[in-house]
Each structure stands twice: as structure tokens, then as C-alpha cells.
Specification:
Elements: E1 6-11, H1 18-26, E2 30-36, H2 40-50, E3 54-56, H3 59-63, E4 70-73, H4 80-89, E5 93-97, H5 104-117, E6 121-124, H6 131-142, E7 148-156, H7 175-191, E8 197-204, E9 210-219, E10 223-230, E11 236-243, E12 246-250, E13 260-265, E14 271-276, H8 283-295, H9 303-322, E15 326-327
Parallel strand pairs: 1-2, 1-4, 2-3, 4-5, 5-6, 7-10
Antiparallel strand pairs: 7-11, 8-9, 8-15, 9-10, 11-12, 12-13, 13-14
Helix pairs in contact: 4-5, 5-9, 6-7, 7-9
């Protein structure tokens, strides 16, 4: 397979698909070959609009195509596990949108299927592949900030799209699953550790989702972290890492672009600007998938990593429900 590009199929006509169209076409190791919808008419209209050669009127029909190598799964959150396992059992590799699943058991089912069928399954946390994220993790790991004591992140948007699954708790909606998963994932990645204990508060909306969630976490070595996320507050996205020898501020942590910068502030108040050339946001996850499938490399976001992120989210929900800290 290494001598020809991976042929991708889009599992639905979700809006997020558009983020992958250009990266797949720009890549020499990947190509967009098919799209599926729940109706043939919708699939054909989407394929025509985006110049995709094959259109299928059911998800299963796409999975049955022997010429498709990789499935991109952007379905609503509660459908991620079922259709990822279905795709793997059909012999496909899968890039599945975040959050990868709504329970640890679902992630483990994906892991079991991937191991059994020798297929790659990875969570589409696009920011994790960006040069800025890699640089932040490198700076923290290098000791430039001294002993890291505190991490803070915020990701809030005003989301009001009526009828969208993100507003339905039964479909895995809510701010924590949708945007809170980013600062949680970033914090775990840069600390290279899992929280020992978490505490959460949530403000629920009329549909039952968490419209706002505030989290506190205790990590090994006396490192503390907190983040807030929301569907009702104005847009905010920032990450800050604080050590005894400096503070690193990431102004665009979760959706970085091609010309970003980091702010490194010393205890004396002097701030250095670190420029990141960057790259197209979604190209990294596409090329990472090619590395994993064609070269046998481990995906940057492993299933163990994804399982731990889901476990932490569930612990935060349990804390918010009970009003007590939860130990992981």
C-alpha cells in the first residue's frame, strides 16, 4: 500500500468534513475518494459540489467498498464508537472526531477491534499535530519555566444552532464534551501525566446539557490545573502554563494557524515573543494517519491517550453530579 495514496471515505456529509477536503487533496499520500450519507440524493449532491468520485446512500455501503482504505468518522458523538467498530471490522482504518467516545468501555471496544483486525484508529484532535502545540510541550519539558505549578485553560463559544446534537445530552452534547475536551487534552499532554483528583461544577441549560463547566484538577508532583468551557459565554480561547521561573501564554491554543506566537514572561516581567511559522491546521492529522498506516508509526494521539481523556471527563461529570472530588 505504501506505493499508492490512501483512499479516504467520508462517513456522512457533516460540516466538519470541509476542514479535511483541502488537506486530503494537498497530500501526496492521501486522496479523497468517496462520501456516504443516509440518502443517495444527499450523497450525490455533496459529491458533485466537492468533486468526489463516489457517493453512497448508506454508511454501510461505503464500508463495503474494498477500494476505501481510511474512514473519517465525524458522526454525532454517541455514534462514534458503533460506526468506528463497524468500519474497523470492514477492514478500514479510522480517523474519528473528538470526543472519540462517551465511555471508557466504548474506547476499549475500539481498541479491541483495532488490535484484532490490525487497523489504525485515532482521535482527530487536530491541534495536537500543529507545530505550536509541539513547541509548547517542548518548552514545558525543557525546564525553561522551572517547576511547573499551575495550568489554566479556557475555551468558550456561543453555540445556539437549534436541533444540533451538541445541544442534546443523549447524543453526547454539552460544553465539556465539545470544547472542554481541548484544554483537558492539552493539559494532560504537556504535563505528560494524568490527574489524580478532579472537581467540577456545571451550569445546565434547559435541554439538560452543561452549558458551562468549570474544572479543577490535581496532578502528580503538586501541579494544579483548571479550565472553563461554555456554550453561552463569548469566544475565549487561551492556555497558560506557570512555573517558578516563568509563565508561558498560548493565545491561540486550540485552533492555531500559520503565523502564531507564544509569550514567555520571566519573573522580572520581561516578555519574550516566540514566533511559530505553523501550518494548515488539519494537515497534521491527515499526515499522521498516513504515517501510522503506511509506515507503521504510532499515532500521535494514541487510544490510551484518548481513553484517559474520556475517563477524566467522566470523572468531572461525576464530581459535578455529586458535589464531591473524584479520585482517578
Amino acid at each position: 500500500m505504501a506505493d499508492k495514496p490512501l483512499r479516504w471515505g467520508l462517513l456522512s456529509t457533516a460540516k466538519i468534513n470541509e476542514a479535511l477536503l483541502e488537506p486530503l487533496r494537498a497530500s501526496k499520500r492521501n486522496t479523497l475518494a468517496a462520501v456516504a450519507s443516509r440518502s443517495q440524493e444527499t450523497a450525490e449532491a455533496y459529491a458533485k459540489k466537492h468533486d468526489i468520485s463516489k457517493a453512497y446512500g448508506s454508511y454501510q455501503a461505503l464500508l463495503a467498498d474494498p477500494e476505501i482504505d481510511v474512514i473519517y468518522n465525524p458522526l454525532p458523538n454517541h455514534m462514534h464508537a458503533e460506526w468506528t467498530v463497524n468500519a474497523v471490522e470492514a477492514g478500514k482504518h479510522v480517523l474519528v472526531e473528538k470526543p472519540i467516545a462517551l465511555s471508557v468501555a466504548e474506547v476499549e471496544a475500539m481498541e479491541a477491534a483495532a488490535q484484532k483486525h490490525k487497523r489504525v484508529v485515532a482521535e482527530a484532535f487536530m491541534y495536537r499535530h500543529h507545530p505550536q502545540t509541539i513547541k509548547v510541550i517542548d518548552i514545558v519539558g525543557s525546564g525553561k519555566l522551572g517547576k511547573v505549578n499551575f495550568v489554566h485553560g479556557s475555551f468558550t463559544i456561543q453555540f445556539t444552532r437549534a436541533g444540533n446534537y451538541r445541544l442534546d445530552p443523549e447524543q453526547g452534547g454539552g460544553a465539556l464534551w465539545d470544547v472542554g475536551c481541548y484544554p483537558l487534552s492539552f493539559t494532560r499532554a504537556l504535563l505528560k501525566a494524568e490527574p489524580l483528583e478532579v472537581f467540577g461544577w456545571q451550569l445546565k441549560g434547559s435541554s439538560g446539557i452543561d452549558e458551562t463547566f468549570v474544572a479543577q484538577m490535581r496532578f502528580p508532583n503538586d501541579v494544579y490545573a483548571q479550565f472553563d468551557c461554555s456554550f453561552i459565554l463569548p469566544f475565549r480561547a487561551v492556555l497558560e502554563v506557570v512555573g517558578n521561573e516563568g509563565r508561558l501564554t498560548v493565545p491561540t491554543p486550540f485552533k492555531p494557524g500559520e503565523n502564531e506566537h507564544l509569550l514567555l514572561t520571566r519573573p522580572n516581567g520581561v516578555t519574550d515573543t516566540i514566533t511559530i511559522p505553523g501550518q494548515s491546521l488539519y494537515i497534521g492529522e491527515v499526515e499522521d494517519m498516513a504515517d501510522a498506516v503506511l509506515l507503521g508509526k504510532s499515532p500521535r494521539v494514541s487510544l490510551a491517550d484518548s481513553r484517559a481523556n474520556v475517563a477524566a471527563i467522566l470523572a468531572l461529570f461525576e464530581s459535578a453530579r455529586t458535589g464531591k472530588p473524584v479520585t482517578l
